[in-house]
Amino acid sequence: MNLGILRLFKISLIFLCLQYLNADVKSFDFDFIKKGQQDDNTLLIIGGIQGDEPGAFMAASLIATHYDIKKGSVWVIPNLNFYSIIKRSRGPYGDMNRKFAALSKDDPDYNTVERIKKYIKSDEIKLILNLHDGSGFYRKKYINSKMSPRRWGNCAIVDQSNLDIDKYGNLEEISTQVVKSINTKLIRDRDKYHVKNTKTRLGDKEMEKTLTYFAINNGKAAFANEASKELNLQERVYYHLLAIEEYMNIMGIEFERKFDISTVDIKKVIDHDIFISFYDEKIKLPLSKVRKLLKYFPINKDGTLDFTPSNPLMTIVKKGKEYIIHYGNRKLAKLHPDYIKFIEDERDINITIDGVSQNIKFGDIIYAKNSFNIKPIADLRVNVIGYVNKSKKEVGINIKRKELAKRFSIDQDGNLFRIEFYKGNNFAGMILLGFEK
Which segments constitute the D,L-carboxypeptidase peptidase domain (predicted)? Predict the structure, then answer.
């Protein structure tokens, strides 16, 4: 994926101030992404209201990053309760989905809840879809402990059958259509979807506190989609995406998906199409097979860490002396910092790769089959991390794969290496070179 199109996720960490998990963190701001041609028939998709439901927030994230809206308008909030996602918790300060009826200003989630309420009440919004992962499999009649009316997995939820509004007020009819569509594409018969009407107005005190019921009371068509926690991540995401796509079809929203909707392809996108860049792409770091610890990673001496993730579920948290790259519930890697002054240097670097001369920019990732040769630059020092033949200079010579120690690679397969450039004691930039694409 081209990281340049995802600058909406750019984040800046101030080393001395935002030591997130070392302090009492009240909340992380959620991302708000508008897609398509904005109109008054907008779909609002929400994921991550509970941080222990990865199918929900991962599906919403894929809508934000891997779908193009060709006709109509979609708003996506993939990480509503971002702190709970990082903490792998249903809610560090209580269940956020029970805070929409009344909430003290002293509650740590207050600002987040008030902010999402404003989006829900926006005039443009005509349909709201809140994504969840639920226990077991919902069935109208008791079958066993995992398939019963008390379970929430694999169902479309409405608070009531109808709502007196201009558009999409036939809530149960719409959810029935969504369920029917999903059930034509089941992975297995056990996964069959059903409509669950909570009939909240009849006295369900817990459901009265939820986001969807708040939306209903503000004249918005609101639905929840649940995928079962009995399913693996890619299967949960599969069913969420099927539901989202059918809601878009109902609203006349046209879209283009950048992958095949199969569990195999969904897993590939989730696990491998992930990157992060630093300092306006002076450094790029692919994360699909990144090592758990990267030592001596350059970080600006002034304490700022600017980074642009390819996905809104990514962030970097400082803990102790290390920076931890988070992706949803996962901790992908730790960066052991090498604090150094960064300088601006826009020059291309000439590198001959398998006999072909190329001009390479800082932040690029390049690949060789056999060898590479870095042309000397008078005022730049080059450090090929992992080069074992230190009796030779690291420029002006052919360096072969066997001369790089795998343990110094940035990836677990031992194929991708850092080439760092310095001007005096200052850091100019980094290029990554791999031997297997």
Answer: 39-270
